[in-house]
TrEMBL record:
Source organism per UniProt: Streptomyces benahoarensis
Pfam families xrefs: Thiamine_BP
Domain (Thiamine-binding protein) ranges: 3-92
Top-rank taxon, per record: Bacteria
Name the record gives this protein: MTH1187 family thiamine-binding protein
GO cellular component terms attached to this protein's record: cytosol
Membrane-spanning residues: none
Similarity comment text for this entry: Belongs to the UPF0045 family.
Source organism phylogeny: Bacteria, Bacillati, Actinomycetota, Actinomycetes, Kitasatosporales
Length: 107
């Protein structure tokens, strides 16, 4: 399963990067495949291990902020592994097929 989630403290002002870093640190230390971008952190693994990491990431932020917002989206697909890279590779393959050949580019 792949879970994309965002955890943010509430009531601490606009600069939340330090709090978010606490959550991302938990994810990275988990050893599970993960990726962080501007909006979400994605993590891949089995249900129990992924949800435990999400719970601990929320707890890390909650330890410093009295209120926390969690947004979570899950792709539950038993038997699929390496989805973090294979899903993106599939999209990139389709995009590459659509690209004009070097001699076909408009002038």
């Amino acid at each position: 399963m792949i879970v994309a989630f965002s955890v943010s403290p509430l009531g601490v002002g606009e600069d939340v990067g330090e709090y978010v870093a606490d959550a991302v640190r938990v994810v990275r230390e988990s050893g599970l495949p993960n990726r962080t971008d501007a909006m979400f952190t994605s993590i891949e693994g089995e249900w129990d291990e992924v949800m435990d990491v999400v719970r601990r990431a929320v707890a890390a932020v909650e330890a410093r902020a009295g209120r926390v917002s969690l947004v979570l989206k899950a792709d539950i697909r038993p038997g699929v592994t390496d989805g973090l890279t294979s899903k993106v590779a599939t999209v990139e393959r389709h995009l590459a097929a659509d690209a004009p050949a070097d001699g076909d580019a408009p002038a």
